[in-house]
Fold each of these.
Amino acid sequence: MKEKNFKTVQREKHEEWRKTNISTQEKGFQNGKKYLHVIPLNNWHENLWSGIQNDLPKYLHNSGVKAHTGTHNLLSSWIVCANLYFPLKNNAHLRKLMTEFLKLKVSPLVTELSDIELEFAFPQGDYLHPEKLLGETKGSRGSGQTSPDVAFIVKTTHGDGIILCECKYTEHSFYSCSARKIDNKSERENNPDPNRCMDSSRKSDYNSICHQNVWGRKYLDLVHFTNHAEKRLNRCPAATAGYQLLRQQALSEGIAQNGKYELVASTVAFDGRNKSLIDCLKTTGIENFQSDWANLFTGKAIFRTWTHQDWVKFVREHQTKGEFDNWLSYLKDRYNY
């Protein structure tokens, strides 16, 4: 019998979990179809840990952040991000634990976690806003622009820092570049030759043929490839599975080059059981994104990763007098973290 993939296992687990944790067994709609692992949109708040069911909707309203369209999907990585990292927003003790965790996983320069923001972007009009820095027009926090799932605003030994994080759960990749898709209904000019992105001989010359440039996007203006990349890449790293990683790398490097922060990091937090995600860039020439992605670029921004299991284990081992047992029990029951 063929072994079930990670997403199938998680879907079946959540279909069972909802029986005793969601108030309705009605199937929800997503992309025009009904699914058992999707709950009715009006019940989306039941997809959240009880400790943030009031605070998170208020945050979204007050900040203008647009939640992902799949918040009623039990497999939503945006919901995983909220359940794992939004509790930091209003809990000083949990922020202290995350400070120590970030020291271990990202940089020993971190001395304090000041705040966290979902779908992070600098204010409109700021040079570091995605519209000016990346050339992404008509977007907003959470829609149509590079907005990291969560940003950790930190203090460091000699200044301020910012850690931008892409949060993943059951996704099989970091998705393919939007400029390689032919869409005759779009107002934007289509790529005349998407196959050129797959040419291994281009290497550091990908910027000269990048169709994102035609759209005014500046991603490849902001990143520079290493000699290691010259040897390893079989195609543009954004072409088939690394688009989100490249955009966040460009955003991080642009922020780092500005000089406002002592520490700028592009990071990925993901489920350690998701082998498909870990291996998704193999045909690009990147055996494991955790260890190999950082070696593709020169610059000031650093790249780091951790697993959701790492974070939960750290809290479980370092909490005081079981203060987070309720939250940890929820994560164990729901995600087996």
Note: The longest strand covers residues 110-118.
Amino acid sequence: MQRIILNEKYTFSLELTGEKVRLILSEGDVELVCRKETIKNLRIFLLKDEFKIFKGRFQLNKHSDIIEVIMKDKPIAIISSIKLELLLNNLIKAN
């Protein structure tokens, strides 16, 4: 599992589950929301300049090199696309 501390309250994690990656938003040790996505679709998301992935309670919106993490229609944090790409690559290499 790979993690990014988004702020003092939230953590963003990636976990490999078979052929998909589970993206998790947590508060402390409590999982708030998660989505499963293929590695291929995550790579496509990272390559696009403006793109949205997921619908519903948990979303990622990409604007240039910035990814906005949204939970229940409220922005929670931003991360760089480079950081997310590094986490994804580290996750794949570890398994």
Note: The first strand starts at residue 2 and ends at 5.
Amino acid sequence: MKIALAALTALVIANTAMPAAMAADINTDPPRNGNVTLKSVGAGALSLIVWPGIGQAVNEQKGEKVLTHALVGLFPPFRFWSGYDALMDRNGGYWDGKI
């Protein structure tokens, strides 16, 4: 029984791994940093302190990105990522340019 469970666990782990060649095709819009300005510092602070997504709206990002940041901001650790994203005034990004 223990051997079967160990084999099943190894099989599941092996199937969840993604080859690097496949991972390269996922991100078609790599993030590009803008300039850190007074506006982006304020946007980062708003996104960190008030609510994720506000900073992206201040930085005039696409509506999809603002909405995604606002919804995923329900998870507290995402505030730090969103604040950094607004501070660096990043364009594009992962998950079709939304994060």
Note: The helical segments are 2-16, 20-26, 38-49, 54-58, 63-72, 78-87, 94-97.
Amino acid sequence: MQFIIVATDDLATLGRQLAHALSLHEEHSGTYWTLKHYEDNEASLAKQPVIFLGESKVSKPYTEVLPVRFADYGTTCRFEGAKAVLLADDPDSVSVDDLARFERVVEGRAEELRHIAETTNVPGVVEVEAQAETAGAQTPSVAVAHQIPVGVRVALAVQPLFDAGKGAVDFIVRAVNSGKRKRAYLRLQYRYVLDRFLKEEFEVFVAGVEGN
């Protein structure tokens, strides 16, 4: 499935990284579009699946009609049909403790994703080897990888690219600059909402697109 990722200017890097992560998997591919490119081509998209990152003049109309799938830590995920919107509210203020706590939440979810990838139930190694040998195709490692939910695989592919601030946040939590803390917190929010969308909702979103 071909996904279009539309991101605001400040989330352009994340938009490109998500598009790249989707394209690493045989089931899907992704393309990053600017807001202007989306506006210029919106009429031709029909039922093309689109994921919006950030609030903008093109995503705002959808936030008014798409149902909320989850909302937590100042983030909101909305989707229905072929459109999904991932948003984070710019925090009014962020204390050192707020930032440290939220970093632990985000990193904890990242660890959950890695754990799922490492412990996903798959056929026994002997059985997989036999299947691969008989089919003359997939190696055990590839067969095992295909048992991991696609959303988890995409989330894991984005994480090495999207450094939410591990290390950088360790420095910022000691800083007195509230502006830096707010920017670090907002970056963590987008990692949180994206990871959660991919882990918990991505397959549901894809099924909704395919059902249209």
Note: The two ends are 13 Å apart (CA to CA).
